[in-house]
Design a protein that fits this description.
Two copies of one chain form a homodimer. Chain A is an alpha/beta fold and 291 residues long. In chain A, the strands form two sheets. In chain A, strands 3-2-1-4-5-6 form a six-stranded parallel β-sheet. The first copy, chain A, has a three-stranded mixed β-sheet with strand order 7-8-9, covered by helices on one side. The radius of gyration of chain A is 21 Å and the shape is globular.
Chain lengths: 291, 291
């Protein structure tokens, strides 16, 4: 049970967490903080938070749990600002899609308060942003990865784990580097590829016609290109090593496709497509088993 | 009104067309032909076709409309086999995602019967295959592109157009080369990129874990990698020039992304993501206006 939860950044993730914890009866009071005043007011109007604070120190003082749900590039400043106001017994966690850079940032920004920070990442989201996009079931059946620090107390980790379990998520622990590599492959790479495809087509001369002739497959494929550009700029920079490595590996994959196509190698293409279909079908099958 | 419709390949597209034309009262009798006997029997059981023929000549004799809904690589043989049995007044059309190669094939295979062939392509589909995946509303509000030949009679074109309009589609005409370039960009490229991504990840050592940590965005992005491998092998070979060109242009786009990421150029990334998001959001907006 959380007495006072401070949500820093009441958007899709922060708002959804507030909603589900309230529904689950896991929290007494929810305080929202953020830079966008219109969005904060909307969070109050929707009943997602009980009240808002316009200064970060007021938002965290008296909170037993602080959740950072802002783009990873903003976390250095936020952590440094809140550090002096963190009380004994306050646990801070984040929802950033990159853990290595966030932990490095936290070490510098929090100093002696570092043990309070338990890094986390819910593997859930949609392409939409802001509190209006939030909904209580966003984390149901989804994984949340925690990458605890050697400095964390077990009790702090347990409180973050309990919070996410109350939100309906399946909580797992993972090493920081491993997390960043896996996410580069399954999330960061696809987002960059989708942005890249839409950007490429939008620069074709007859773009209006091109998009008019796009069918459902294209819409599915590019949906994530509607995601928040600032959030993805920050992720791209924060996880640059693993992402650049995946982009280069993907270029190798495209090289193989081009070569098979230019050589008229139908067998190679069919094998590749069949292997990919089997892997993708297995994923759908696992989803259905879970439902 | 079609007296007897012969559907060659009663799968997702052929089956859906049969369903909707029957619902619309636009057809008297539907004859199915295909290589997969289990699928054909299923088409009869589902009432998608009235009866099946196990030889192609029997299927087309007496039909006033023949629709080829098989992978484009199989069309040369099918067209050559049916050519002697095509009667005056029979119109043949196809649903292939590539028009240049199909037309070249048809010129050779049909010879003097070429005027009967009106090339077409419904811009609709799902990642599923077979008659079980077919449904009557597949073409509702979707575009169908016709790329008529100089040899076609206006009346033949009109009959194909009427058929697709009865199926709820919006019918447009386009040049063959233009069609193949537009589709390479909006359909063929995304399918190859999705197959490539799933293939790349399936070869990572810890693939089971990688897929377990994939969220909704990845599922959307890779859904089309569950598409039929033979169909996509054929499309890749038939439209090889335009597809290879798009794959190379896409590699240029990835080069730009890698360079921005490795140089820590957040401004360039944010600009690119913002431009792509605007284009993708406009697409969603147009969809919603149409609904």
């Amino acid at each position: 049970m959380i007495q006072r939860l401070a949500i820093v950044g009441v958007g899709l993730i922060g708002g959804s967490l507030a909603r589900v914890l309230r529904d689950a009866g896991h929290v007494q009071e929810i305080v929202g903080y953020g830079r966008g005043l219109a969005n904060l007011q909307r969070a109050v109007d929707l009943g997602v938070v009980d009240r808002v604070e316009t200064s970060l120190n007021k938002a965290v003082i008296g909170a037993d749990m602080v959740v950072l749900a802002t783009p990873v590039g903003s976390m250095a400043e936020i952590l440094a600002t809140m550090a002096p106001y963190l009380e004994d017994g306050t646990v801070v966690t984040d929802v950033g899609s990159v853990k290595g850079a966030v932990v490095t940032t936290a070490r510098t920004a929090l100093g002696a308060k570092l043990p309070a920070f338990v890094p986390g990442h819910p593997i859930a989201g949609t392409e939409r942003s802001g509190v209006d996009a939030s909904f209580a079931s966003l984390f149901a059946g989804r994984r949340v990865v925690l990458t605890p620090l050697p400095e964390n107390r077990q009790e702090s980790i347990a409180r973050v784990r309990d919070m996410w379990r109350s939100a309906g998520a399946d909580v797992v622990e993972m090493g920081i580097e491993h997390h960043d590599e896996v996410l580069a492959a399954t999330s960061h790479l696809p987002h960059l590829l989708a942005y890249g495809l839409v950007d490429l087509l939008s620069r074709l001369e007859d773009q209006r016609e091109v998009f008019a002739f796009a069918a459902g497959g294209f819409r599915d494929f590019t949906r994530i290109a509607s995601s928040d550009p600032v959030m993805w700029r920050d992720i791209s920079l924060a996880n640059h090593t693993a992402i650049a490595q995946m982009l280069k590996a993907y270029q190798g994959e495209i090289d193989r496709l081009i070569s098979a196509i230019e050589n008229g190698n139908g067998d190679a293409l069919q094998k590749l497509f069949t292997r990919a279909k089997a892997a993708r079908d297995a994923m759908t099958h696992n989803d259905q088993k879970k439902e």
